Amino acid sequence: MMERKYYEINEAAARRSKEMMSFDDYREGSATAAYQQEVEEIYKLAEKVAERRPDAAEKAEKLADQYAKLLADYYNTNFRIDQMCPSVMIAGPANFPVRKKEKQNQAWDRNREKYERCKEIEDKIRNLLSGKEIITSGDPEVIEKLKNKLANLEKAQETMKAVNAFYRKHKTLDGCPDLSWENIEKLKATMNDSWRADPKPFESWALSNNSAEIRRVKERIKKLEVAKSQPADRKEYDGFSVEEDPEAMRIKLIFEEKPSAEVRDVLKKNGFRWSPRANAWQTQLTNNGRYRLERVLKELEAC
């Protein structure tokens, strides 16, 4: 069972928020309980990932922690925004601070983006569970993940061939050792609904498409292995250097001194993030990353 990490919910702010929005009494601890219930569901989802895909367990747990932290920030910020202006029900319509309410609404909209990011994190965990997560070339573990994907594709190809062979021989799927009872029933239903006169458990197009995906993944692994074997390329500039690190799959900007706030803003808006471990500002080593580096270099010339 994964260790749950809950972040503090400001109960005092939650109570004041309730008082600004409703005549109902605030139930002590209710905001914390609601928050923890949402986080618990995410951890349960992450545990399913760990059970089905042990290789993705650590990533799922990290995503669950990110969700828990961001959700707490969303709630606490919302409680502060609630206190900017009471509801018209509490304040009454006379001399109601319309301008203040407009600012409050704008703040709510901005804070809503945090909750939407929480939903994006949840989607990432669900994609891990289904095996549909996007494997980017900038991921330091891209080759390992692609090899896992390749193994699953090859296993699926062999299973489809074995099931088709069993069906050709026995004219039934009952007792097929390569399928669970549930999958046998699903395939039977699919075959019964088929327009073909003589349907197969897995049609030729399914085997062909999967085979093409196997070839594509193999080729991608080959190209990435060649790229990662190249030595790091480093160029020196005035006050900093730029390094392409194929092993880490990162483009790194290494400054001699801490860059100014203006320079940091340029880096951030172009997708570079500070890495204490690498002691550098970095982004993914992709063609898009190189394009953003060119923009950074042009903007730094003007600073």
Description:
This is DUF3560 domain-containing protein. With 303 residues, this protein is α+β, with helices and mostly antiparallel strands. The chain is built from ten helices and five strands. The chain has a five-stranded antiparallel sheet with strand order 1-2-3-5-4, covered by helices on one side. The longest helix has 33 residues, at 98-130. It starts with 10 loop residues before the first helix and ends with a helix.
Give the secondary structure arrangement, pairings included:
Elements: H1 11-21, H2 30-52, H3 57-82, H4 88-91, H5 98-130, H6 142-170, H7 181-192, H8 204-228, E1 233-237, E2 240-245, E3 250-255, H9 261-269, E4 273-275, E5 280-284, H10 287-302
Antiparallel strand pairs: 1-2, 2-3, 3-5, 4-5
Protein name: DUF3560 domain-containing protein
Query: Can you tell me the overall shape?
Result: flat
Which consecutive residue ranges, at least 5 long each, have pLDDT under 50?
none
Q: Give the proportion of residues in helices.
A: 55-70%
Computed Rg = 27 Å
Which structural category fits the helices and strands? alpha+beta
Distance between the termini: 51 Å
Mean pLDDT: 88
Number of helices, where a helix is a run of at least 4 consecutive DSSP H or I residues: 10
The SSE string, one letter per element, is HHHHHHHHEEEHEEH
Instruction: Give the tally of β-strands.
Output: 5
Biggest beta-sheet profile: 5 strands, antiparallel
Q: How many domains make up the 3D coordinates?
A: 3
Strand content: 5-15%
User: Strand order of the main beta sheet, please?
Assistant: 1-2-3-5-4
Organism: Holdemania massiliensis
Protein name: DUF3560 domain-containing protein
